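Page 42, continued from yesterday. The earlier attempt failed because a stray header line got pasted into the input along with the sequence. Redoing it now with the clean sequence only.
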Amino acid sequence: MEQSQTMEKLQQEVDLYINSFIEGYFPPMELIARLTEELGELSREVQHVYGMKKKKSSEAIKSLEEETGDLLFVLVCFANSQGISLEKALLTVLDKFKERDADRWTKKEEMI
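This time it went through. Structure tokens are written below.
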């Protein structure tokens, strides 16, 4: 069974990988373009699985997990290149949502 890793450790692992190449991280705008490209590929897979527009028989079928992983990898690259802790960023936004949307949705325990 694989041991789970923290977001910080995963960011460090990506950083070690990227910095093993002379070129290093792509510039920010290139990374944003890559994020857009990967999101498009994930969207295409979601459309194939759940939408009306199925892939042609000549198009390769990839998993939603693989495409999500590609998107996350580029996001981690962007965050690393900008010195952003994804763990801190996610925890901050979770706190924001918990406060702002505390009474926006029907909580499951309220339905009983």
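Notes: The mean pLDDT is 92.
Reminder to self: strip header lines before submitting.
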